[in-house]
From TrEMBL:
This is Uncharacterized protein.
């Protein structure tokens, strides 16, 4: 029986990739000629066995070295969300997971984990965070966007879907904040008008008044507003707007369009009663 020819395509491809990783001057420059970085890249390209064979064995994994999955993130949040001290440590841990190249290189779908992290940092964690924790979250997200080291030597988040998700979350937060401010202003104006009308009626009826007329429901609503998350502090709003501005100047036309559209919506909400020349 004639022996079947061996499939040499996989070894040849492997050799070609290894040669490229080892000897290409542009790769050497990008990875700072570090074989550990080459090994991490090879892990995602051809798997752990090939990476270890050509660039050395991986060290034993510590519990925090990854891989980190979206489910891991969700479980951590459930355990720490409502405890202020645990929440502070949680925020630091999530930012570390999102920005550490060693952890991200352990998982070829790490972008899904980073999406989960950015969604939760600007979602349930944000709405339970203290002012100091808000600042930590924003600083961490800025570092993710512009300073996160990658295995390829570049800086900043490279995944389009992670960047898009972060941008959409920031825009949504700014819009929620602005709508709250506008609605609160309208409610306060309506309340002042109501008090003014009641006083006029009292005057017509010959009644005396010494204090504004506010019913108990209005007082309760006012007290509740003080405890609401919104409106955000001006410095927080400014930093969130800086993140949107970062995308306005980015090299992706799609992200630029989303950022500009978000700023246009904010402008429209901030000036709801502005009339155009046609009006």
């Amino acid at each position: 029986m004639e022996a079947k020819p061996k499939n040499k395509s996989a070894p040849l491809f492997e050799k070609a990739v290894v040669a490229w990783m080892k000897y290409d001057p542009f790769v050497a420059l990008a990875v700072q000629n570090d074989n550990l970085v080459r090994r991490d890249i090879m892990l995602n390209l051809l798997g752990a066995e090939v990476a270890s064979r050509h660039f050395g064995a991986f060290p034993p994994r510590r519990p925090g070295d990854g891989p980190i999955y979206p489910e891991t993130v969700r479980n951590e949040i459930l355990a720490a969300l409502h405890d202020p001290n645990k929440r502070t440590r949680l925020i630091a841990k999530l930012i570390f997971w999102a920005t550490d190249p060693r952890i991200n290189n352990r998982n070829d779908k790490s972008h899904l984990t980073r999406m989960q992290i950015t969604s939760d940092l600007l979602g349930p964690i944000w709405f339970n965070a203290t002012l100091k924790q808000e600042e930590t979250i924003i600083l961490g997200l800025k570092f993710l966007l512009a300073g996160k080291p990658t295995a390829g030597g570049s800086r900043g988040e490279q995944s389009y879907i992670v960047r898009k998700n972060l941008l959409m979350k920031v825009i949504d937060l700014l819009i929620q904040n602005q709508k709250f401010i506008i609605n609160k202003t309208i409610k306060e104006t309506e309340e002042k008008m109501r008090v003014h009308l009641l006083r006029q009626i009292q005057q017509l009826q010959g009644e005396k008044h010494t204090t504004p007329v506010f019913d108990s429901e209005t007082r309760l609503k006012t007290h509740k507003l003080v405890k609401e998350k919104f409106p955000l502090r001006r410095d927080i709003v400014k930093q969130l707007e800086e993140i949107v501005a970062f995308f306005v100047a980015c090299n992706s036309p799609y992200l630029r369009a989303i950022a500009k559209d978000g700023l246009a919506k904010l402008k429209e909400i901030r000036h709801p009663f502005t009339l155009t020349a046609k009006d």
